[in-house]
Amino acid sequence: MGTEISSKSAESDAAAKVEVRLFGPPRFVVDGETQSLPDKAFVLLAILAASENKSASRSQIRSILWGDFDREKANANLRQLIARILKIGQKFDLVLLDIRGDVVSINEAACTIDYGAFMSLQRGGTDRQSAANRCEALLALWTGRLLDGFGFDEAAVDEWMEANREEIRDRFVDAARDALEAALDPGSFDAAWRLALKVLDVDRTEEAAYRAMMRICTARGDRGFALRIFSRCKRTLAAELGVPPSAQTMDLAAALRHRDAEALEQSVIQPIARDRETRPAQKSERQIPVVLILPPISVVSDDATRMMALGFVEDLTIGLSRFRRFAVVAAHSGASVAFGSGNLQEAMAVLDVDYAVATSLMPATHGHRFGVRLTNVSNSEVLWATETDFTFATLGGTFERVTGLILRSMVNAIDEAEVRTPIPATEFTAYRNLLEGRRLLHGSDLQSIRRARRMFKEALTLVPNYPAAVVGLARTMTYEWVVRGMIENDLLKESVDLASKAASLDPHDGRALRERGYANLYLRRHDESLQDFAQAMALNPHDADILEGYADSLAHSGDPRQGLNMFNKAIELNPIPPDEYSWALGSIYYQLGDYKAALQALRPVEDSPATARLLAACTAQLGDLELARHYSRVVRSVYPDFQAERIRAIVPNRNPEDTEHFIDGLKRAGLD
User: Which key words tag this protein in UniProt (predicted)?
Assistant: First the structure.
């Protein structure tokens, strides 16, 4: 083929710039709108982007894309694919490829590719950039695995993709490691923290990420949390690689603590020492329940397996203490009392325990079985129990998932037990008021929100500066702003102030940061919102509500696919979610243009006036104008003066095109 197709000028191409995203699910974006492209076209662009000159010969491309085909068929397929790419470009008055004889190149004046940008960034070096900028550049470029979701059941192309996925993954981790080690000044901490979390998503054993997070926590005065991160690093390396941390990581930990045991004791609330003859305080005086996690009863002689079971127990202890809804007796103290007493019930009384978590370890048909049982100490009722089988081969995938599910189930069981016993309103404890307020917030109507606010205020009259109640109060402010579709920001600013107060009262509870993240999102402080949610997730990694909020923030900040991934993690931990989950998921699907999925997500709240706007837009986009008009009438019945353009002041989208997309749906529904 002697034909040559040369690029148009950069000035002409700049009018409709193309963005090709090959990290994560591939996307072909023209002027902000996603367009269709053949799957193998994405692979061809990846082949070109991976080369130093952004070009490759036809024979190179052919051997990768159709290496299993005969030469004539492969040549014909390549010609057709190039023709399709060029035709798609012509729709937008663009030339995407330069064809010069046997060489195919990317027209970089018209097309930017994240994979190519990453490779160029590495080749050019980033040493001259500040540590914060290096971290931000890597965060912006790396949005997931190369060509995620692609597979052709063809050996040549599949092998090329797997090899390049592994190579680019290693390149990313190497580049991130260098950036994290350089992030020593406070100005780089926020970007470094987010990059460390992303690195651990890619490689859970990368010590540079743990070290960076330990340094950041220490600089911010949270030495206890830094040591818990080190503990997680040790367990992960032992479980997945069978090795201890490196000398560099051990030296950093040694500088933070005197003894491991003392550090672990700081991560949970210690029982108040009391004489054995002293009668335990009544719950109405103490206000919050006390939970004891007993060490595992083991019939396994293998030391490594017993240590793994202790790792489970440690994770459960730390995880429960992060919820801050109950006092968690340190495992060491509980074991000392339990083993030093001939009567376990007497030991429980000494510690003033309301709930006990018994754990066990025993052999299973394949591997081992770890059991957990939650008991109400007052009446010996078993509230919840589960068993999970594991082997060392499957432990890496089992540990985090099972721990998260166990934590969520135990928290729900305790909350239900606390609410189940009828208590006169005059005898409500602060904790009961807190739970009642949270229950009311599961609805999305204004009356429930304001009733919840009263409950949180009553909790604060019983226990001034009760962090969880301050968090609840902050949430009611944000919820009311959203449900009423307000334009003035006074409630949001009050929510930020309350959430910041709660965070200062209890710096280990991610829920305060979650509420601040929500309020900052609706104040359109997107970066601050994402930062709040990232830090909240680091504090409470198994809190489904934090993950759901993070998903919503990611979507409104312009990354709905990452938001959907985060939302799915939240649903794994909370499979029967409250109303706000449905609203958030419906919004994400609408943003992605999947209107049928949006309607399905909104079904549990389709009778709520608060979601009528979104339902109207979805049904209108699907062409069901009769149903769309119905939802429009619901909107107007609650907000008589509502107009679609008003959404600009309400919906906190970073990208204007996302807001225009929503307004378009509302106008189609007759809300113009």
Answer: TPR repeat
For residue 170, give the nearest of 128, 122, 242, 135 by alpha carbon.
Answer: 122
Q: Write out the two tokens for 233.
A: 């690093």
Q: Are 31 and 17 in contact (CB under 8 A)?
A: yes
Backbone angles phi, psi at 10, to 5 degrees: -60, -35
Structure tokens at 173: 């981790």
Buried b (16+ CB within 10 A) or exposed e, 73-88: ebbeebeebbeebeeb
Residue with tokens 């060489």: 103
Distances (CA, A) of 205 to 7, 244, 588: 45, 11, 32
| Other beta carbons less than 10 A from residue 213's beta carbon | 25
| Number of other residues whose CB lies within 10 A of the CB of residue 426 | 5
DSSP 3-state assignment of 93? coil
Q: Are 533 and 517 in contact (CB under 8 A)?
A: yes
Give the closest residue to 468 by CA, choosing from 226, 289, 213: 289
CB 659 within 8 A of CB 647: yes
The two tokens of residue 20 are: 């090709």
pLDDT score at 3: 41
The alpha carbon dihedral of 124, 125, 130, 135 has a sign of positive
pTM over 0.85: no
Interval 135-160 mean pLDDT: 89
Residue 154 has pLDDT above 60, yes or no: yes
pLDDT, tens digit, 9 for 90 and up, residues 333-380: 454 444 444 445 555 554 567 788 877 777 766 677 777 888 887 777
Q: What is the residue type of 17?
A: K
Name which of 546, 479, 540 is nearest 517 in CA terms.
Answer: 546
> How many residues does the structure list for the chain?
672
Contact 632, 669 (CB under 8 A): yes
C-beta of residue 471 within 8 angstroms of C-beta of residue 497: no
| Spatial distance between the Cα atoms of 554 and 541, rounded to a whole number of angstroms | 17
> In the chain, count of helices (H) and strands (E)?
30, 14
- 106 pLDDT band, cuts 50/70/90, is very high
Going by C-alpha positions, the residue among 279, 198, 288, 205 that lies closest to residue 239 is: 205
* DSSP character string of 292-348: EEPPPEE----HHHHHHHHHHHHHHHHHHHHH-SSEEE-HHHHHHHHHT-S-HHHHH
User: First vs last Cα of the chain: how many Å apart?
Assistant: 55
- Other C-beta atoms closer than 10 Å to the C-beta of 379 total 7
Residue 45 has pLDDT above 70, yes or no: yes
User: Among residues 243, 146, 134, 238, which one has the least CA distance to residue 182?
Assistant: 134
- CB-based burial of residue 427 (10 Å sphere; 0-12 exposed, 13-18 middle, 19+ buried)? exposed
- Please name which of 518, 525, 520 lies closest in space to residue 546, comparing C-alpha atoms: 518
Distance CA 584, CA 388 (A): 32
- Crossing angle, helix 510-522 and helix 490-505, to 10 degrees? 160
* Higher pLDDT, residue 433 or 652: 652
Q: Are 502 and 512 in contact (CB under 8 A)?
A: yes
Which has the minimum average pLDDT: 9-13, 78-82, 130-134?
9-13
Q: Please state, rounded to an integer, the average pLDDT across all residues of the chain.
A: 79
* CA distance readout (Å), 377 to 281, 330, 355, 417, 593: 15, 17, 5, 12, 51
